[in-house]
Design goal:
By secondary structure, this protein is of the alpha/beta class. It folds into two domains: 231 residues, Aldehyde Dehydrogenase, Chain A, domain 1 (3-Layer(aba) Sandwich), CATH 3.40.605.10; 183 residues, Aldehyde Dehydrogenase, Chain A, domain 2, CATH 3.40.309.10. The protein has 14 helices and 20 strands. The strands form five sheets. It has a seven-stranded mixed beta sheet with strand order 10-13-14-9-8-15-16, with helices on both faces. Strands 5-4-3-6-7-18 form a six-stranded mixed beta sheet, sandwiched between helices. Helix 4 links the parallel strand 3 and strand 4. The chain is globular. The termini are far apart.
Length: 452
């Protein structure tokens, strides 16, 4: 690991990643490699947790290809100096902001979307002119092995390389001095990463999680709300960081919403083997999820099979903040329901928890969804939909507070892996005498006049 780190430091210092030609070539090389290995990666996703080819492409590859295309189309524009206004005291001059790469990066991926969440930040790192060491999740070993082969046979190790590491070896990686660490995963591990980075004053991007709420008001279109929410919640068997973690539904539409959700689940047959439903990633997470179930509060689902790591989509009602299912991010196919009588009460319940990575509000009244958007702090979200804000490369994706630090996607990804360097270009044909000695009252009066 130390050797690879040293190679990357030398590669970056040689300036081999800086120019437009080098960056666009790396993006093209990355795109070609991904297309070459796509089928093997799809097979590996199925091997790790029975994710179908359809869901693999729509939730992993489609956004990854879009990220590459977006970077290729806009890279030349992104690399141009950004002109800004110059204040009067610096006249005559012009001012600009230059993006420069941070340098050598460590990118640690997550297991729930093991292709997308490791390789999407890598695209941004390459576009910004960096080198990177990629550490895939050991919880998706088949995918990790294919990604290792894909990257390490198509890139020089000084530029982009994959290393396999367990928890202990990852801690060794974190002791090295990186220019930037990008981590996607749990808040608990994020704190460990942050602490290790602090020893070297290394900047971090932490894409974490939290309990993301969905607030459903009395004015919501209940059938459409249920359709969209069921899809987003049980996508990837609920193992999605921005999935709605729990629902706050107005008491007047509670029963209608429950019936609509059950109808959707029955209509689409969420059983293992269907191309829209997959396994829990491993037995440890399976056991954790089963422990969150309260049989007395289950109104639909609850069936499970440990051998196949299957948990049926489950709806729990009459849930309170004191229940086990509300003490941690669920990250599985369990949907707890709580009710509210006023929107103010709903907002208060959300504020009782840490700031979430995502929040969703279903309402047809502008005053209602505007209140939620203005009163709640969260990473990102949607009005009358869930999850889909991730698919827009023009929107930054990231958390706030315990749900994360920093954001990426599109130009925000370039900023994530760049330093914005301020430059003043001063002219030589005039120099005002105000700042030079002797420092007189007359000069001070002139400065005060200009400043007021």
């Amino acid at each position: 690991m130390s050797s690879l780190h040293a190679q990357q430091c030398a590669y970056f210092k040689d300036g081999l990643t800086l120019g437009y030609a080098a960056r666009i070539s790396a993006l093209h090389q990355f795109d070609q490699a991904l297309r070459q290995y796509e089928e093997r990666l799809v097979a590996a996703l199925y091997q790790d947790f029975q994710k179908s080819a359809f869901e693999s492409f729509t939730t992993e590859f489609s956004m990854l290809y879009e990220e590459i295309r977006h970077a290729q189309r806009n890279l030349k524009k992104w690399m141009r100096p950004q002109r800004v206004r110059t204040n009067w005291i610096n006249w005559p001059a012009r001012s600009a902001i230059l993006r420069e790469p941070l340098g050598v990066n460590l990118i640690i991926g997550a297991w729930n979307y093991p292709v997308l969440l490791l390789l999407q930040p890598a695209v941004s790192a390459l576009a910004a002119g960096n080198t990177a060491v990629l550490k895939p999740s050991e919880n998706a070993p088949a995918v990790a092995a294919v990604i290792e082969e894909m990257i390490n046979t198509n890139f020089e190790s000084g530029h982009l390389v994959v290393v396999q590491a367990d928890a202990k070896q990852t801690q060794q990686l974190l002791t090295l001095r990186w220019d930037h660490i990008f981590y996607t995963g749990s808040t608990k591990v994020g704190q460990i990463v942050y602490e290790a980075a602090a020893k070297h004053l290394t900047p971090v991007t932490l894409e974490l999680g939290g309990k993301s709420p969905a607030i459903i008001t009395a004015s919501a279109n209940i059938p459409l709300t249920a359709k969209r929410l069921v899809w987003g919640k049980f996508l990837n068997a609920g193992q999605t960081c921005v999935a709605p973690d729990y629902v706050l539904v107005h008491e007047s539409v509670r029963e209608a919403f429950i019936h609509a959700c059950i109808s959707e689940l029955k209509r689409h047959n969420y059983t293992l083997g269907q191309n829209h439903y997959c396994q829990i990633i491993n037995h440890r997470h399976f056991d954790r999820l089963i422990a969150l179930l309260d049989p007395e509060k289950i109104v639909f689902g609850g069936q499970s099979d440990r051998d196949t790591r299957f948990i049926a989509p489950t709806i729990m009602a009459e849930v309170t903040l004191a229940d086990a299912v509300m003490q941690e991010e669920i990250f599985g196919p369990i949907l707890p329901l709580m009710t509210f009588d006023t929107l103010e009460n709903a907002v208060t319940q959300v504020k009782a928890l840490e700031k979430p990575l995502a929040a969703y509000v279903f309402s047809t009244l502008k005053k209602e969804y505007q209140k939620v958007l203005s009163d709640l702090s969260f990473g990102g979200g949607a009005v009358n939909d869930v999850v889909m804000h991730l698919s827009n490369p023009n929107l930054p994706f990231g958390g706030v507070g315990h749900s994360g630090i920093g954001a990426y996607h599109g130009t925000h990804g370039l900023d994530c892996f760049s330093h914005r360097k301020s430059v003043l270009y001063k002219k030589n044909w005039f120099e005002a005498p105000l700042k030079y000695p002797p420092l007189s009252h007359k000069k001070l009066n002139w400065i005060k006049k200009f400043m007021k």
